[in-house]
Design a protein that fits this description.
The complex is a heterodimer of chains A (about 325) and B (about 800). Chain A has about 325 residues and is of the alpha/beta class. Chain A has a single domain, classed as P-loop containing nucleotide triphosphate hydrolases (Rossmann fold, 3-Layer(aba) Sandwich). In chain A, about 35% of the residues lie in helices and about 20% in strands. In chain A, strand 1 and strand 2 form a beta hairpin. In chain A, helix 5 crosses helix 6, helix 5 runs parallel beside helix 7 and helix 7 runs parallel beside helix 8. Chain A starts with 16 loop residues before the first helix and ends in a 6-residue tail after the last helix. With about 800 residues, chain B is mainly alpha-helical. Chain B has three domains: about 260 residues, no CATH class; about 190 residues, no CATH class; about 280 residues, no CATH class. In chain B, about 70% of the residues lie in helices and about 5% in strands. Chain B is built from 30 helices and eight strands. In chain B, the strands form three sheets. A four-stranded mixed sheet of chain B has the order 4-1-5-6. Chain B has a two-stranded antiparallel sheet with strand order 2-3. In chain B, strands 7-8 form a two-stranded antiparallel ribbon.
């Protein structure tokens, strides 16, 4: 059994808004500073307070999205992949994006990771607008998806080391961190194995290590379990849960209801570029009078399809 | 930008490539092994195969004079062949001399290609001789009933069937008549009838084998004739010196190393260009498209490294492999060549010692390799980034390889040497400079002056290509290109449905290509007929010009505007300009004219641009200056028409299309380049491209086409009158002077004009920059948080 709880034993201080906006490098790998407002409070209060009530007011949102819209040009005209999406996520929270394939989940998460630029709308990660300082945003997030592969001709250790260096982690700290991550993720036997010689499960471990090597405050998982067998998928879900315990702000997109039920504190059902409804699972079940998660999901999607069909000329 | 990240990425990519067996094979194993193997193979081939023997049939061989004897018992005597005995062995001589000669030929000849026995060959030869005699008789008789061409045709086909390559017919009594001639060498007694009959040599120039055999037998016969002449002179008691009164003698000054230089100067530039490209080709595909294909592109994109750093890291990697491949290939090829030359000493290569080029030449080679490899690396990276998969990457890079091969072939031609113009053409400049430097150590001082333009322009092109690659890395459409199914019908439908006020970038590009294509097609049809009187011809020129402007420049733009856009007003900038803009257009035209005249003539004088084709232009100028054409007509044709038509196309449709997306700078530059290209004649093209910049700026600044039209009209009108009579301004030597029969401007005028133009251009650029800044800030507002979110942010933030 992997001890996921240990994943972030060496603490990295979270950036304060001032530091990130002033583009001050916040890499220090200090041991946890009790006076540090954000991170310390998160950890202290997390165990005491129910998550529905944010522990320190509305300003602590790690991710804020408002009116986000993304349009693509293609042969069939302009395609609106995201249409006026708004949501907020707090530290220590797993926010689930639930939707069928092509709903706009990946587009939304790619915008948050600054790989895509929004057409209009506001998106902020760790207090930084994605349109203002993309590099700083990327330094504050870990991103893992089925599209973020690992290099075939690199060993596990080289891969994690390479990304750690790109994040600018000082060499000594990086080596410590890698030792620790490889220990916890039980990757020591694949340390010197080339990517091309790894199984899917091993690759996924390397991907997780790569995602959290810089201990980011925000972690984005875009369908991280797609194409994995049950055991590997289970391990990934454990890792996500453990990271939440560390007070990370997590977005988790999936089309699998079971995962949402297990992990997410709040979910947004997204379909055809719009959020159909948002809230914690019990809230949604109450609101739509449908205790079965799967049925709830289909109902919401059907609702959106019905909404669109009279207006859309096909 | 962080160089640390660039270094990190570079080191990773290099390690990645070195772990790839294919890359290692391409850049190290292949060159190290390939050339020695090829060399060995060539030596083997030479030793194993000798050239096939060509068959020469000699009829009536016994009629040849006995002294000097052309034949010996084995065929033609060896002494009639120059150099080695190879030539003799490469000819199979079949004569009707005696049976035992034929027997010896029999054994050797039939072993090789026993199609025809010597007897048969002789028989065929005789049949051919008979046909020939028939033809000659018919020609001499001039018989109308006999179709000469038919006999000739038959003769050709008979010759092909005989299986022999050259037929030599010795006429009857040849030896006797030569002897008679030698005995009676007196000029008085000579008369035409006593000329001996001629020796006939029949060949077929369309058949390579026959040509080779003929050249050998011709050499032998010539030497034999020389000997015969010497004998004749001796018998006639003439001085032997009279045989060669002109006494020609050839002196060879090339030393061995120069011969080698000649070989290297042809091989190295070609090899270096092709190998630098090949060396960039495979790593680029792997680093660009391969990254997408293996699904690691997004992993890299979400790292904090900036796109510039990614591109630079990859670029330096490709550059290293490109240089490495080129150098490895050159080294291997050089040493193999040298080794082979010495190994084969005593053979054909004994005259050529393949000394490697000297230290200086090799230094130049390395210096010039860097910008060349940089250009290829950046280009390959850009193309490979654009591709979705490695397969697609190869599709894109193959045309590049072909273009470069074409340019290299051009440079290999011995007549092509570096000129100021060539020194700024990519790839060609480096190949030609290198060729010159390798060819001659003595002239290198002359060539070194070209080094600066060659290096600067090449590095400039590399920087452009690199900028393009970075731009592609910033374009999400390129990075996340889905495999779209291309369906012509849905594309056409979308063209019609998704019309926008102004054309798209590619539509503008297509409009330019269409105009270019129409001009190309019409080149042969639209040549004005210059026959008839001057006035008539002049009118025809005017007419053609107007038709050309209307149909080939204005029409495509207008029709594309009608079909592809929703707003003609926006596309063709049909807005009322401010009075200020109109005045600026006219003023700029007046001020820019002296500058453009002097600049282009300076460029021609310094050799950068070729001089205009004087003959054609003079004739046209003459015709147009004939007083019977009213000056107003000429101004209408040469100023008003282009001002309307060309502006509609270039500052209208094309510039509007290119400027969509807000990239004004690039749009103006590209549209002016297009405007230049359409003018064809280099000098005009250069002028037009420069003026195109001002025109584009005017159009973008005023948002109207009319100031650009005003500029264009004034410019052309001024140029017309300048060519005609120089506005009646008299040369005073201070401001104006006279040169080449036209008004020239002196420095004071140029400085004034330059200041004026610079002031106006700067003002426009400034206005545009401010406007762009405001626009950009406005655009960024779309990404700002809404008001209800901002109020929660603490006051300290």
């Amino acid at each position: 059994m992997i001890h996921w709880q240990q994943i972030a034993t060496t603490r990295i201080r979270l950036p304060t808004q001032l530091e990130t906006q002033g583009r001050v490098s916040w890499w220090g790998f200090d041991s946890l500073n009790p006076k540090d407002s954000t991170h310390a409070t998160v950890l202290q209060k997390m165990s005491q307070l129910p998550l529905q009530h944010p522990p320190f007011g509305e300003d602590s949102h790690m991710i804020r999205v408002h009116g986000l819209t993304k349009e693509f040009d293609d042969f069939n005209g302009v395609f609106r992949a995201l249409d006026d999406i708004s949501f907020e996520v707090q530290p220590g929270e797993i926010y689930g994006l639930l939707g069928p394939n092509g709903a706009g989940k990946t587009t939304c998460l790619r915008i948050l990771s600054t790989v895509l630029r929004p057409t209009r709308g506001f998106a902020e990660v760790a207090g930084i607008n994605v349109m203002h300082d993309a590099e700083a945003v990327r330094r504050n997030i870990g991103f893992m998806s089925c599209n973020t592969g690992i290099y075939d001709r690199m060993t596990a250790r080289e891969m994690v080391e390479y990304f750690g260096r790109l994040y600018g982690i000082p060499e000594e700290k990086l080596q410590l961190r890698i030792e620790e991550l490889f220990e916890i993720l039980q990757m020591n036997e694949i340390r010197d194995r080339l990517g091309s010689k790894m199984s899917t499960g091993m690759k996924q471990k390397v991907s997780i290590a790569r995602t959290i090597v810089h201990d980011p405050p925000v972690i984005i998982f875009d369908e991280p379990t797609s194409g994995l067998d049950v055991l590997v998928a289970r391990n990934v879900l454990h890792a996500v849960a453990a990271l939440k315990e560390q007070g990370k702000c997590i977005i988790f997109s999936t089309h699998i209801m079971r995962e949402v039920e297990k992990l997410c504190d709040r979910i947004a059902v997204i379909h055809r570029g719009q959020i159909v409804d948002e809230g914690s699972l019990p809230e949604l079940a109450d609101r739509h009078d449908q205790p079965d998660v799967e049925e709830l999901f289909f109902d919401l999607i059907q609702k959106r399809d019905d909404e669109l069909s009279p207006t859309t000329v096909v | 930008m962080s160089w640390k990240n660039v270094k990190l990425i570079f080191l990773r990519e290099v390690r990645d490539q070195l772990r790839d067996r294919r890359t290692l094979f391409m850049i190290t194993i292949l060159p190290v092994l390939l050339y020695p193997m090829l060399g060995l193979g060539m030596v083997e081939m030479m030793l194993t195969f000798s050239e096939q023997r060509r068959i020469v049939v000699v009829l009536n061989a016994d009629e040849m004079p006995a002294s000097p004897a052309f034949f010996n018992e084995r065929g033609i005597a060896d002494r009639w062949f120059s150099g080695s005995t190879d030539d003799a062995s490469r000819l199979q001589i079949v004569t009707d001399l005696s049976v035992d000669t034929q027997q010896t030929e029999d054994s050797s000849g039939q072993g090789k290609h026993g199609k025809h026995s010597p007897d048969q060959l002789l028989e065929n030869g005789r049949a051919l001789a008979a046909k020939l005699a028939e033809l000659r008789k018919a020609t001499q008789a001039r018989d109308a009933h006999v179709d000469l061409s038919e006999i000739q045709d038959r003769l050709g086909s008979v010759f092909a069937e005989t299986g022999l390559q050259v037929l030599v017919i010795v006429p009857e009594g040849y030896a006797a008549s030569i002897a008679a001639l030698q005995n009676d060498a007196n000029i008085d007694g000579a008369d035409d009838d006593q000329q001996p009959p001629s020796l006939l040599v029949v060949r077929n120039s369309a058949d390579d084998k026959s040509v080779v055999a003929f050249s050998r037998i011709q050499g032998a016969l010539n030497r034999w004739e020389d000997e015969l002449r010497a004998q004749t002179f001796e018998k006639a008691a003439l001085r032997p010196a009279l045989q060669n009164p002109a006494r020609l003698k050839w002196v060879e000054v090339a030393r061995g190393e120069q011969v080698a230089a000649n070989v290297w100067s042809k091989m190295f530039p070609a090899m270096i260009v092709i190998m630098a490209l090949t060396g960039a080709f495979y790593p680029a595909i792997d680093l660009g498209a391969g990254e997408k294909e293996r699904g690691t592109m997004e992993t890299l994109l979400i790292s904090p490294a900036r796109r510039v750093e990614l591109v630079l890291g990859k670029f330096v990697t490709i550059l290293m492999f490109s240089i490495g491949t080129a150098l490895m290939n050159l080294l291997s090829m050089g040493f193999t060549g040298k080794h082979m030359a010495s190994a084969m000493a005593g053979g054909i290569a004994d005259t050529v010692s393949l000394e490697l080029p000297g230290f200086h030449a090799l230094m130049w080679l390395i210096i010039l390799l860097i910008p060349l490899a940089a250009l290829f690396s950046a280009l390959c990276l850009a193309l490979a980034t654009f591709a979705k998969s490695t397969k697609e990457g190869q599709y894109y890079l193959t045309p590049l390889l072909m273009v470069v091969m074409g340019l290299t072939m051009f440079c290999l031609s011995p007549a092509v040497e570096i000129t100021p113009l060539y020194s700024v053409i990519p790839v060609v400049n480096i190949a030609l400079l290198l060729k010159g430097l390798l060819l001659s150590t003595s002239q290198s001082a002359e060539l070194v002056i070209y080094a600066a333009p060659v290096l600067i322009s090449s590095l400039g092109y590399s920087a452009l290509a690199l900028w393009w690659a970075i731009d592609l890395y910033n374009s999400e459409g390129v990075l996340f290109r889905e495999a779209e199914k291309f369906d012509v019908r849905s594309w056409l439908r979308s063209l019609n449905r998704d019309k926008e006020p102004v054309p798209a970038n590619h539509e503008a590009g297509f409009c330019f290509i269409l105009i270019l294509f129409l001009q190309f097609v019409a080149m042969s049809y639209m040549r004005p007929d210059l026959s008839g009187s001057d006035v008539e011809a002049g009118r025809k020129i005017l007419q053609t010009t107007v038709i050309q402007q209307l149909t080939m420049i204005a029409c495509p733009a207008i029709f594309m505007g009608l079909l592809l856009t929703t707003s003609l007003r926006a596309t063709f900038r049909l807005r009322m300009p401010s009075l200020n803009s109109m005045l600026m257009g006219v003023g700029l035209a007046v001020l820019a004219h002296p500058l453009s005249i002097e600049l282009s003539s300076f460029m021609v004088q310094s050799g950068v641009l070729p001089p205009p084709p004087v003959e054609g232009l003079n004739r046209i100028n003459e015709l147009l200056q004939s007083s019977e054409l009213s000056p107003w007509l000429i101004v209408t044709v040469f100023a008003v028409t282009p001002a309307i038509c060309e502006e509609i196309a270039f500052r209208g449709f094309i510039l509007s299309g290119l400027a969509r997306g807000g990239r004004l700078k690039i749009a103006v530059v590209v549209s002016s380049l297009m405007f230049g290209i359409i003018h064809m004649i280099p000098q005009q093209a250069f002028n037009a491209a420069l003026l195109g910049l001002v025109l584009g700026l005017l159009a973008v600044h005023s948002r109207s086409l009319f100031p650009a039209m005003a500029f264009h009209l004034c410019n052309n009108a001024i140029a017309t009158f300048h060519a005609k009579n120089g506005f009646g301004i008299e040369a005073d030597g201070v401001f104006f002077s006279n040169g080449d029969g036209m008004l020239r401007y002196e420095l004071p005028v140029l400085i004034l004009c330059g200041l004026g133009v610079a002031a106006m251009v700067l003002r426009m650029v400034n206005d545009l920059r401010k406007e762009q800044d405001v626009k950009r800030a406005d655009a960024m507002k779309a990404f700002n948080p809404p008001a209800e979110l901002t109020k929660h942010i603490p006051a300290g933030a």
